[in-house]
Amino acid sequence: MSFAPVYDKNAHTLIVGTWPSPKSREQGFYYGHPQNRFWPLMARLLREPLPQTIAEKKALLLRHGLALWDTIESCTITGASDASIRDVVPTDIAALARDTAVRRVLCNGATAYRLYAAYNAVPGLAAVKLPSTSPANAAWSMERLAGAWGAYLQP
Q: What is the share, in percent, of the chain residues with pLDDT greater than 70?
């Protein structure tokens, strides 16, 4: 099973990934791989200290009107390879959108964008494909990631 979504009724932007990596599942929260740049990127763009605990990570997102979830509720996957994903059961992003002020979706990587478009697309909710913060996306430096994501995440 995927992690529960992080949101409150004031969330205006939903960030979606695909499915928790083995390291994330081991740690019990999103983007748990120590080399994933998601949390350092959020801290940098939102001008906040790097969150360390799950509670700090949730609070960082909620303070800035951000929600976080995955596009997949359950699936069959080999290791952390998004390319191996099959037997997809999507999350109910439409229900989350109805309970919040979410007006756009930021997709963390091309696979998240493709899965969102295929299984979760909500009419009227704009989706943006952003470069993945995964360590596998080594072609994108932190500077390039900050440039791409920065237009959508301002404190």
A: 99
